[in-house]
Amino acid sequence: MQRHVASGRAQSGDPPILEAKGVTKRFGGFVALDGVDFAMAPGERVALIGPNGSGKSTFVNCLSGALTPEAGSVRFEGRLVTGMPPWQRARAGLVRSFQIPRPFRRLSVIENIEVPLNFALAEPPPGGKAQRALEILESIGLGAKAYGSPKDLSQVELRKLELGRALAANPRLLIADEAMAGLSDSEVDEIVDLLERLNAQGIAIILIEHIMRAVMRFSQRIIVLVAGRKIADGLPGEVMRQDEVERAYLGQ
Ligand SMILES: Nc1ncnc2c1ncn2[C@@H]1O[C@H](COP(=O)(O)OP(=O)(O)OP(=O)(O)O)[C@@H](O)[C@H]1O
């Protein structure tokens, strides 16, 4: 049985920033997502968890536009975006970052932020692209590395650069896909700190993550997918106490 426990932000009565209804995705005969409903308040911090292959990436691909669901709808700030390409959703303020950073290695760190600035914004930023790119790098702690090469960045710095590239679009909703996999405990904390700072600036965040320490520290709400279905959605402590979640997720 699925239990709904609204988070503090979700109870505030704000219209949802994101609303997915009945999202269904099939690959051939295989049902990867089976009628997933999900709504999120502006500025909320939600973690999306579930065992390997449960449909997390497929779901966020449907939210960000990389995949089109066979059924269901996705609304961002009230606007129907189902079928809209990812770049258009990014311009609207719905942006995702990827698990494996793939920076342009021949470009400098700052140029790696300038490239997405070129296409993610409908209008050039007020102070110019270079200034905006530097502001973004400073906000993610990479200001001192701006004119260096991404080849000289550490793993945690590359993850920050990937988040910085997503910030180029001025997101109001950021989907961070496994931004911490393979990092040390202190590096995980650095990324959680960074995500918290971005959230404090008003950016709603969906965190897809297997590292439960980060999930519990970061999220105001957790949703759990198992075999393409949402089996839980609520406050972190309550969700993690549900038998079905323990069986399906922690017991794997
Ligand atoms: N393009 C595709 N073609 C066929 N099957 C796919 C495709 N993409 C995903 N799947 C299948 O859909 C299911 C859900 O995959 P998905 O990658 O969304 O899971 P996940 O929860 O993100 O897993 P992980 O935690 O391992 O990243 C899996 O069984 C996967 O093999």
TrEMBL record:
<keyword id="KW-0813">Transport</keyword>
<dbReference type="GO" id="GO:0005524">
    <property type="term" value="F:ATP binding"/>
</dbReference>
<keyword id="KW-0067">ATP-binding</keyword>
<feature type="domain" description="ABC transporter">
    <location>
        <begin position="18"/>
        <end position="252"/>
    </location>
</feature>
<keyword id="KW-0547">Nucleotide-binding</keyword>
<dbReference type="GO" id="GO:0005886">
    <property type="term" value="C:plasma membrane"/>
</dbReference>
<dbReference type="Pfam" id="PF00005">
    <property type="entry name" value="ABC_tran"/>
</dbReference>
<dbReference type="InterPro" id="IPR027417">
    <property type="entry name" value="P-loop_NTPase"/>
</dbReference>
<protein>
    <submittedName>
        <fullName>ABC transporter ATP-binding protein</fullName>
    </submittedName>
</protein>
<dbReference type="InterPro" id="IPR003439">
    <property type="entry name" value="ABC_transporter-like_ATP-bd"/>
</dbReference>
<dbReference type="InterPro" id="IPR003593">
    <property type="entry name" value="AAA+_ATPase"/>
</dbReference>
<dbReference type="GO" id="GO:0016887">
    <property type="term" value="F:ATP hydrolysis activity"/>
</dbReference>
<dbReference type="InterPro" id="IPR051120">
    <property type="entry name" value="ABC_AA/LPS_Transport"/>
</dbReference>
